Amino acid sequence: GLYEETFVVCFFFKVSCSTSEFRSDGDYLLGGLFALHEIDSVTHSISKSGYKMLQVMKFAVEEINNSTTLLPNVSLGYEIFDLCSNTRNFHSVLNFISKNVFSSLSKVNYGATSYVLSDKLQYPSFVRTNPSNKDLIEMIIHIIRWFGWNWVAFLGSQDDYSTDGLKLFNKYINNTGICLAYQEGLILNANYSLTVKKIDKLNINVIVIFALKEYASKIIKAAIANNIQDKVWIASHSWAMNQQLPREPGIRKIGTIIGIAERLLSLPGFNEYVYSKAKGTADNKSETCNQDCDYCSLMTAEEIINESPTHSFAIYSAIYTIAHALHKVLQCDMNKCSKNTIAKPYMLLEQIKKLNFSLNGQQVKYDENYDPIIHYAIVLWRTNVNPPQFEIVGTYDKLPEITLTINKTLMTWHNNGSVPFSNCSVECKAGYSRQPEGFHSCCFTCKKCPRNSYVDFSRDPYTCFPCAESEWSDEGSTTCKTRSVVYPQFTEIPSIIVMISAAWLIILLFAVFCVFAYNYDTPVVKSAGGSMCFLMLASLILSSVSVFFFFGKPTSVFCLLRNVIFTFFFTVCISCLTVRSFQIVCVFKMAAQFPKVYSLWVKHNGQWLFIAFSSFIHFISCVVWITVNPVKLIADTLTPQDKLLLICERGNPITLIIVMFISWFLGFLCLLFSYMGRDLPKNCNEAKSITFSLILYYLTWIAYFTVCRFRLFGNTQKLFGVVQHVNTYCTTLY
Q1: How would you label 372-381 residue by residue, b for 16+ Cβ within 10 Å and e otherwise?
Q2: In this structure, what is the dihedral angle of CA atoms 149, 152, 155, 158, given to the nearest 10 degrees?
Q3: How many CB atoms lie within 10 A of CB 527?
Q4: Angle at alpha carbon of residue 712, lines to 711 and 717, rounded to 5°
Q5: Of the ranges 419-423, 603-607, 641-645, which one carries the lowest mean pLDDT score?
Q6: How many other C-beta atoms are found inside a 10 Å radius of the C-beta of residue 627?
Q7: How far apart are CA 98 and CA 198, in angstroms?
Q8: How many CB atoms lie within 10 A of CB 722?
Q9: What letter would DSSP give residue 288?
């Protein structure tokens, strides 16, 4: 009858063993390809690691056949080929595949790591039990970042394995802070000494060797021969468990070697299996040229067991993957399987994608690309003991999320101290930004961030970001602090003093207003200006009221009232003083010299026309001032850095100058006229009082602008209110 063939490709390597070790019958036949001979231009010797792989496959098949739960009434057989020569292999392998034209074929690979094989458009039925180069490179990058290194070298060979790894390494170190300081693809007869000397000269202390064991061995031996010391060597999985290199004389001085390997370094029951098989006698009868192993019988069980376990679990899980998928396809239960079901490749592939089982404590599961969900180990070479040992010091898991864990207490470095340094530049202190230096982003100098700025390494370590207006910081800061919002409080002592004096002044002015109103018809009131006195007193009272809007939390309405009320009504008062000064001069000097002009001035109430005209012009300028660019509330950041003073913006500077100029110009005219009357009779000394008041008025403004110019007083808004109050008081003195 017909039987199904399931071809297990644990990567096509050569196998050289006796015929009895190459073939075993079963209901379903598994094919295996292993490299059991190592052939170069000089020698042709047996590969101990390849022979161990063969034994792992046979062990897995025998274990499954002895199982009562997996494929209960189905037996698996195998036929294994040695991959010592491609020209010799093809005939035997193709003959194996084509023995039965009705047979179905499914391949599970244990050794191919090229990332391109994950592309299911090109390789729709490719399944592997070992990690892809993408997974391996990501794992190496995680290790480098775990220890804080960023100045590394990457060495490989010029084959697909290393070339693919280098391409992926360059891709995935982007935005990680890692700089590839040196890279090279070597050939077997390259100058390895020159390479390691270049790396040492560049002060690179971490070297990734992503190459097959033949190249890795030459690199390590060159480092020993050239006295390269105190480096960290990261071994890819292809040579991380090499059994010969740790015994190389002088290897301890080159530094620390850590590698990535299968987490399950030994298969339970495998050693016993090897010992049991070693007691038998091998049948060396050869069916084909690549099913021949004349020297295999000379290997002891200890040699097989102690050989590198690099691919052991991958081969072991490949056999179990096929068995579990076949178990599903054949609709097996606890007692039997349906042998009438024909297992097609697409059926096995469909089941493989759904598999999720535990194998000796390790989860076996595949993603949508038929790549395994990896659970790897970080191993440390302990070359200071005899014999050298491999110790698991960390783990790497991809599910449920990527997790790297390294036991720092188990990590012993070559310097018997802290983690070795391998960075182009020493990391900047907190509060210092990086300044690029050279081609690599890892090379930089450090610059302290100035006041009111900060550096955030998680955001951009090369930039000092400015703090927001509501924040502040000292030099060399990593964060900004929130400014405390301040404004003139009603309860502050200076505020209370100003408000009490303003209230006292308002009461005084109001009392004078009442006295003048009561004695309106008396000569004293008339000589003081008559009805003009009431306009002046009312303007001064309203100007004094504006002082109260300078205290408490400012609002837009307060900003408008505090500035406009004082500016307009104080200007009305100044215009009255100007007219009053002018009239005093006119009575004694202009009336005699210009009688007609004086007559027209008196006849048409020139003093009121002047007051009305100047007040109107000033009123229009105030309207323009508050409409073109309205007075509004802002935060003053020029105050002490830890405070944010709420102030009222002055509005458009041009219109503000016009508004203030009108008031200052009227004051100047008033001062001029009053000075002209300095030689009047003593009983007409009103001009001298006006002169004294206006001098104080201008001195107050000069003092205010001096303080503002040199920032001698933090709260200039409160000072502005004081200035207004003093101006009103000075005018009242008149």
Answers
A1: bbbbbbbbbb
A2: 110
A3: 10
A4: 70
A5: 641-645
A6: 11
A7: 53
A8: 22
A9: S
Residue 722 has pLDDT above 80, yes or no: no
CB 84 within 8 A of CB 37: yes
- CA dihedral over 511, 513, 517, 522, signed as positive or negative: positive
| pLDDT of 720 | 52
Distance of CA 41 to the CA centre of its chain: 52
Strands 633-636 and 460-466, how do they pair? unpaired
Preceding amide of 387 cis, omega within 30? yes
Backbone angles phi, psi at 434, to 5 degrees: -85, 140
Structure tokens at 220: 């390590």
Q: CA separation (Å) from 220 to 16, 95, 155, 255, 308?
A: 29, 42, 11, 11, 18
CA pair distance 403, 142, nearest whole angstrom: 9
Could you tell me which of 394, 450, 341 has the C-alpha nearest to residue 147?
A: 394
Q: Which helix or strand (DSSP H or E) is residue 393 part of?
A: strand 389-397
The three-state secondary structure class of 499 is helix
Angle, helix 606-628 to helix 595-603, in steps of 10 degrees? 70
Q: 272-280, long-range: CB within 8 Å, 24+ apart, which pairs?
A: 273/55, 273/59, 273/62, 274/55, 274/59, 274/301, 274/304, 274/305, 275/301, 277/55, 277/301, 278/304
Strands 460-466 vs 453-456: parallel, antiparallel or unpaired = antiparallel
Pairing of β 127-128 and β 108-109: parallel
Query: Predicted confidence band at 203 (pLDDT cuts at 50, 70, 90)?
Result: very high
Q: Which of 202-216, 530-544, 669-683 has the lowest mean pLDDT?
A: 669-683
Helix 345-354 crosses helix 312-329 at what angle (to 10 degrees)? 110
Alpha carbon distance 108, 112 (integer Å): 10
- The residues facing 70 across adjacent strands are none
In SS3 terms, 48-90 reads as HHHHHHHHHHHHHHHHHHCCCCCCCCCCEEEEEEECCCHHHHH
Rounded to an integer, what distance in angstroms lies between the CA atom of residue 680 and that of residue 591?
14
Instruction: Determine the Cα–Cα distance for residues 674 and 660; give it in Å rounded to an integer.
Output: 21
Which region, left, alpha or beta, applies to residue 401 given φ > 0 means left and ψ of -120 to 50 means alpha?
A: beta
Closest CA to 424 of 411, 439, 413, 409: 439
pLDDT tens for 290-334 read: 566 666 667 888 888 888 888 899 999 999 999 999 999 999 998
Chain-centroid distance of CA 216 in Å reads 35
Structure tokens at 363: 């989860």
Residue 239's Cα: distance from chain center in Å? 34
State the alpha helices, DSSP H only, in 426-548: 493-518, 523-527, 531-545
CA–CA gap between residue 539 and residue 566 (Å, rounded): 9
- Cα–Cα separations (whole angstroms), residue 681 to 239, 578, 623: 116, 20, 43
Query: What average pLDDT is seen over the chain?
Result: 81
Residue 615 parent element (H or E): helix 606-628
What size, in residues, is the chain? 734
Name the residue with higher pLDDT: 151 or 668. Answer: 151
10 Å CB burial of residue 322 (0-12, 13-18, 19+) is buried
Contact between residue 707 and residue 716 where contact means Cβ atoms under 8 Å apart:
yes
CB 11 within 8 A of CB 110: yes
3-state secondary structure 120-137: CCCCCCCEECCCCHHHHH
Decide if pLDDT at 40 tops 60: no
First to last CA, the chain: 131
Say if CB 645 and CB 714 are below 8 A apart. Answer: yes
